[in-house]
Design goal:
By secondary structure, this protein is α+β, with helices and mostly antiparallel strands. The chain is built from 3 helices and 6 strands; from the N terminus they run αβββββαβα. The protein has helices at 12-24, 69-78, 95-121, and strands at residues 29-30, 34-37, 43-46, 50-52, 57-62, 83-87. A 4-stranded mixed β-sheet has the order 1-4-5-6, with helices on both faces. A two-stranded antiparallel sheet has the order 2-3.
Length: 122
């Protein structure tokens, strides 16, 4: 019996992101759970669509205008998770650039934090 592919569990948008990450040589895990505190300080387990293990960054693939992604973004930020939200349904040609821009932004922010920590040790 042949094992079902992880790709068969993904939406079309998630498959596009997975392929793009593969082309970039970025290792990812699909729907790796995270423990969060929600807006009412209740504990929850959420599963962002992708976890980029080598970068410590999550990706949420946004597939609908009818879902409150702003609330998700707020909760992830409150819990200290770096999550890039990709809205493939809005503009099918810009999401890759959006991903790369946010990846640079997160990396720059982390480097600045690290420099500040190192500076305190000197």
């Amino acid at each position: 019996m042949q094992k079902e592919s992880i790709y068969s569990q993904m939406t079309k948008s998630e498959q596009k992101v997975a392929q793009f990450l593969k082309e970039l040589g970025i290792f990812w895990s699909y729907e790796k759970p995270v423990y969060i505190w929600d807006e009412n300080n209740r504990s929850r387990v959420w599963s962002p669509d992708f976890y980029l293990a080598n970068l410590g960054i999550y990706i949420e693939v946004c597939g609908s205008e009818n879902f409150d992604y702003d609330n998700r973004k707020t909760i992830y930020n409150k819990n200290g998770f770096d999550v890039i939200f990709l809205h493939l349904y809005k503009d099918k040609n810009r999401w890759k650039r959006h991903f790369m821009n946010y990846l640079k932004l997160i990396t720059r922010f982390r480097n600045e934090r690290f420099s500040n920590i190192i500076g305190k040790m000197n």
